[in-house]
Design goal:
Blueprint (H helix, E strand, L loop, with lengths): L2 H40 L7 H15 L2 H6 L15 H36 L2 E4 L2 E4 L1 H4 L1 H23 L1 H4 L8
Antiparallel strand pairs: 1-2
Helix pairs in contact: 1-2, 1-6, 4-6
Length: about 180
């Protein structure tokens, strides 16, 4: 196992942690909304700040933290209508190109969300909720964290894929004598 494959294996730990973070956030969101709806309908007393906490924390975590896990498990949407008859070489090249395009897009996303997270951290961003304020600036860091981990994973996957499938990509194999 080469260095890149070892790093990819090691990255499974933070990737799984972030996936579990997203799952836990989704569960907490369901419980929080259930308590709010029950309080509002049964006791005529809603749970204060539910909308702000759900949209500012739970939804962000549930939507973005699993990104690297999705990339690792190749869980993104695939449409193979035009590639069903493609050769293994063409499929390998397309796979690398899609990963490179994803790296480019997610890198821009990560950079922009990093800039915004710094701005909102400096400003101490809060959202007003019934009876107080909810700090939101820490949740801003989930986006560049999730995007950065996804980019790192995909860059290493491209390097690994090129190394493991160089014969499919048309790169000549070097034989040792």
């Amino acid at each position: 196992m080469n260095f890149v494959d070892r790093v990819l294996k090691w990255l499974e730990i933070p990737i799984n942690i972030m996936m579990w973070g997203g799952l836990i956030a989704g569960f907490l969101m369901m419980m929080h909304v259930t308590v709010d709806v029950t309080g509002r309908t049964v006791f005529n007393h809603p749970f204060a700040g539910t909308t702000e906490i759900v949209s500012g924390w739970y939804m962000v975590a549930a939507a973005y933290l699993p990104w690297a896990w999705i990339a690792r498990s190749d869980g993104h949407i695939l449409v193979d209508l035009f590639t069903r008859a493609a050769s293994p070489r063409v499929l390998a090249i397309l796979d690398v190109l899609v990963k490179l395009l994803t790296i480019a897009w997610v890198s821009v996303f990560t950079w922009q969300t990093f800039i915004r997270a710094v701005q909102q951290t400096r400003a101490g961003e809060v959202w007003e909720a019934a009876g107080g304020f909810i700090p939101i600036w820490p949740s801003r860091w989930m986006l560049p964290l999730a995007g950065g981990l996804m980019v790192l994973y995909l860059v290493l996957r491209v390097v690994s894929d090129i190394g493991h499938h160089s014969h499919r990509l048309g790169t000549p194999k070097v034989e040792q004598v």
